[in-house]
Amino acid sequence: MSTPIRTLAALALTTALAFHPALAEQLDRLVVHKSPTCGCCGKWIDHMEANGFAVTPIDVADLGRIKREHDIWPAYRSCHTAVGEQTGYIFEGHVPARIVARFLADPPADAKGLSVPAMPVGSPGMEVGDKFMPYEVLLLQKDGGSRVYARIDSPDDQY
Q: Where exactly are the structural domains of the chain?
């Protein structure tokens, strides 16, 4: 994202936060653990920042260690792991910012976070022209289980 666009996005967010203090409480700073060579992770970070999230990327050599530390089972894994700095909630993979914000506004009691397993084509950060593959956002539960939190059937469902 270019500097003028980032500046406009930051100005829009600042204005929104001034008039909607509850929004500021919902947006948790995300620490994103990622591979230094993964381009789609950087695109997902851009998506999150463009939608009002503060993001701190951390390049790590052993992402498996991060995923094990946060008890993210292999079936729920993707290319990067974001952890809410204030809340500790996990956002694994290419979860749309809109869905993260909705989750943070009213997290289920048994939740530890959200996951988009694998890397669905067309999800935020995984755009390939006009190609799109429907996918599910899973609610990761504290007991290790999961359930469908949201279904993304079209690109418009993400934004």
A: 3-158
